[in-house]
Structure formats: structure tokens, C-alpha cells
Design a protein that fits this description.
The chain is built from no helices and four strands. This is Fibronectin type III domain-containing protein.
């Protein structure tokens, strides 16, 4: 892969259907970044992340991780 361009975070409440997506641009400058997804309802949420380079090549999704949100 070439220079980092963006991160693509996919998430949802079904590990097999991550229906939400956040694209974080300027990945090169934010190489040690963190990102907070807000407004999540109570329950278990699943997440993957991919990186995309400046040539448009995108990595395979990471392993799915989960986070339980309590009210």
C-alpha cells in the first residue's frame, strides 16, 4: 500500500451486517488517532476498520471487535 489516505470504520448491532460507516480522512496526519462513535443505543455493537491508501487500495477488514453499551 502507498501513503495512508483514510480509515473506514464500519459498525452495527449485527456482526454479520455492519450497516453504519464512518470515514476518517487525513489518515497520514492522524496515524495514532482515536475516534469516538457517539449516540449508540444500549446493546452490543460490533466494529471493523480498514485503511485506504492514496491510490484507492483498501485493506481487508480487521477482525470484528465488540463493545456493550449499558444504559
Amino acid at each position: 500500500m502507498g501513503e495512508l489516505d483514510r480509515y473506514v470504520i464500519r459498525y452495527g448491532q449485527d456482526a454479520d451486517e455492519l450497516s453504519e460507516e464512518v470515514v476518517v480522512t487525513n489518515a497520514q496526519a492522524e496515524a495514532e488517532m482515536s475516534y469516538e462513535v457517539s449516540g449508540l443505543d444500549t446493546g452490543t455493537w460490533y466494529f471493523t476498520i480498514q485503511v485506504q491508501d492514496t491510490n484507492g487500495l483498501i485493506s481487508e477488514p480487521s477482525d470484528v471487535v465488540s463493545k456493550s453499551i449499558r444504559s
